[in-house]
Design a protein that fits this description.
Spore Coat Polysaccharide Biosynthesis Protein SpsA, Chain A, 9-stranded mixed sheet, 17% strand, 4 domains, Rossmann fold, 651 residues, 21 strands, alpha/beta, 6-stranded parallel sheet, 42% helix
């Protein structure tokens, strides 16, 4: 047996198929190599799936080893694979990568012909659309001294695991993967192998395909925090100490790349669990190697970050390591309350537009130069401008609401430059696709939020007679229906009343210039007067809803079920947060947002519900269910967490 391919696997269903296909295409004769899959206690059926694959191929050539517990990294599975291997050489492969068809045959032939302990090639990176070569070593020749070979590999290659390594070398020298390390373990393993090897070779041949395709499954390379930083500090120090035994310096050869990777990971994938003590260790390391680090060719962003680490200023570091988030748009009322929560994880600047398509151009350009992530609130002129002016390295997110679906600016956006569209409800997720033809894979559902803990609530049984409607403009909001409901309730009990929050139609110039809208609200006023409701309706204007709703019983959502219904309708959620109940006249999509028990087919059903809940204990039980539903689904912390995850997934 010439070669044993060792492939660690964990929950690999959906990502291992290309790897398997590549293994079946090997040109090396079947009896000369084996494939050992080591399943790290997967929970998705990976081991059983692989067992079925071995039956298809040949059980003697493909084997599956199951671990009884998850180790948390590929290291221990690789060690188990070596222990079980029968080949003269070991070849490591990750389960989501592909080995080239002639790799085993060509690499093994050269390794045997030259009696090599280690043979490395280069790799091809596939980003989902194209291939690029990486890790190609220049100036390599068979007579190159071992020290120079090691220097060439460390300087010019990343420490990818696929290499052809003589198994007897690993066994005799006791070289094992360190199961404690979750980050950088491949660096130390490679250095140990290179230092122990008598003869090291390089083949100018693409060894494998590294699939660098975006995934929504978190991996160890897309999370960075205390554990990863500790691992990196240990790896950098150990690598430098090991290489110094042959007169080489890891710090001068490779730390520029390694440190840059760590810093960018901190910016993009920070878990925010690094404490001041660990930061102090980081600062000590930077200062110890400052003579080399200060010469690293970094941009201003990373240079400033390194300087803050060197200075040992933890508070400055925590601010500088935040991703730079630009929030741009006209009318930021739906995102501004989330900014304090987001500012814990992002450095934020605001580009507030003066209209849907008007803005301070100089301010927008200044913000654009600064930003790493651009968040356009509304799919309007702001999204058009930023999509046509952003740099390729910047990420652009556009959040759409109902308003934009009735306009054409979504067709003028440079869709290729937009990384992500956010819809606030499932119905409008589908509408974005239908209306503008955006790719489904570029849209995410991130619901609105409610800051539950900021609302006051009174424990007053009389609140069951207090209705509220928040926002009556335009006519599709159903103000007339709310008056009809009020009339029906007052006929049963004169204690019912309706508070109306927001502008009235007479205060808004565009509505008075619109004949249909003007006629509608004139009919509302006539209806109110004709039915003697004037003393039961209270115009509140703009109010602080966190206080104003404290004695409200029911917040109404009686909007039209039109072609473009409500996108989310946060107003009834305000009611639940204040201890009231939100009640909804059925409109398309509401069933995906709120509880079914709060949605009604007509005004009679809403009336019956309100009357039934004059019983205050029954009222409070239903109100609490609604509030708990919000806490489980629409809290501020949930919104911030979802937003952070979506941003991280873009990198």
């Amino acid at each position: 047996m010439k070669v044993s391919i060792i492939i660690p696997c964990h929950n690999a269903i959906g990502k291992i198929e290309r790897c398997l296909a590549s293994l079946r295409k090997q040109t090396m004769p079947v009896g000369e190599y084996e494939v050992i899959f080591v399943d790290d206690c997967s929970s998705d059926g990976t081991a059983d799936y692989l067992l079925r694959q071995t039956e298809v191929v040949d059980g003697t050539r493909w084997r599956v080893i199951r671990r009884v517990s998850n180790s948390g990294s590929p290291s221990e599975p690789r060690n188990m694979g070596v222990d079980a291997a029968r080949g003269e050489y070991i070849f490591y492969l990750d389960c989501d990568d592909e080995i080239l068809p002639d790799t085993l045959e060509r690499h093994t032939r050269q390794a045997i012909d030259q009696d090599l302990c280690v043979l490395r090639g280069y790799l091809r990176v596939f980003d989902g659309s194209s291939f690029t070569d990486a890790n190609r070593i220049k100036g390599f020749s068979a007579g190159t001294p071992k020290k120079s070979i090691i220097e060439g590999i460390i300087r010019q290659q990343s420490t990818t695991v696929p290499s052809l390594i003589r198994r007897s070398l690993l066994v005799s020298k006791g070289i094992r993967w360190d199961p404690v390390l979750r980050m950088g373990e491949d660096t130390l393993y490679l250095i140990d192998v290179l230092l122990a090897a008598k003869r090291i070779g390089y083949i100018d041949h693409p060894t494998f395909v590294y699939n660098k395709v975006a995934t929504r499954i978190a991996s160890s390379t897309r999370q960075y925090g205390a554990r990863e930083l500790r691992n990196h500090l240990r790896v950098w120090q150990s690598a430098d100490a090991k290489l110094k035994t042959i007169g080489l310096s890891y710090v001068s050869m490779r730390l520029q790349v390694g440190l840059q990777t760590a810093l960018l990971s901190l910016i993009k994938f920070n878990r925010w669990d690094i404490d001041e003590s660990l930061f102090g260790d980081f600062s000590v390391f930077i200062n110890e190697h400052w003579s080399a680090i200060e010469k690293f060719n970094y941009g201003t962003r990373l240079k400033d970050l390194v300087k803050s680490i060197r200075a040992g200023d933890f508070s400055v570091f925590k601010e500088q390591v935040k991703p730079r988030l630009l929030v741009a748009g006209y009318g930021l009322q739906f995102i501004e309350k989330a900014l304090p929560g987001l500012s814990e994880y992002f450095s934020i600047r605001i580009d507030e537009w003066t209209g849907h398509a008007t803005h301070d151009l100089a301010r927008s350009k200044e913000c654009l130069d600064w930003a790493e992530v651009i968040f356009c609130e509304w799919l309007l002129g702001n999204a058009v401008w930023y999509s046509n002016n952003k740099r390729p390295d910047q990420k652009l997110i556009v959040r759409a609401h109902r308003f934009e679906l009735a306009r054409d600016l979504g067709n003028r956006v440079n869709d290729a430059a937009v990384d992500l569209y956010i819809a606030v409800s499932l119905f409008y997720f589908e509408m974005l696709i239908e209306r503008f033809g955006y790719a489904r894979k570029k849209i995410r559902l991130v619901p609105n939020y409610i800051n539950l803990d900021s609302y006051a609530s009174n424990d007053d049984p009389a609140r069951v007679f207090n209705l509220a409607i928040i926002g009556t403009l335009p006519s599709r909001k159903g103000y007339l229906r709310s008056l009809e409901l009020l009339k029906a309730l007052v006929e049963l009990d004169s204690r019912y009343n309706l508070s109306v929050y927001g502008k009235s139609y007479s205060d808004t110039s565009w509505t008075t210039r619109n004949q249909e809208e003007d006629a509608y609200f004139e009919e509302c006023q006539n209806y109110l007067e004709r039915n003697g409701l004037a003393s039961h309706v209270h115009q509140k204007g703009y109010s602080d809803l966190t206080v104003a709703l404290s004695n409200t019983g029911f917040v109404l959502s009686v909007s039209d079920d039109s072609e473009l219904p409500e996108s989310f309708h946060i107003a009834p959620a305000d009611g639940f947060a204040a201890g009231a109940q939100g009640v909804f006249l059925d409109w398309r999509g509401v069933e995906y947002i709120y509880q079914s028990e709060t949605v009604f087919p007509d005004l009679d059903a809403i009336k019956a519900h309100i009357v039934e809940h004059q019983d205050y204990s029954r009222f409070k039980e239903a109100a609490l269910r609604g509030r708990n539903f919000l806490r489980e689904n629409y809290t501020m912390s949930a919104f911030v967490s979802r937003f952070r995850r979506e941003v991280a997934d873009l990198f």
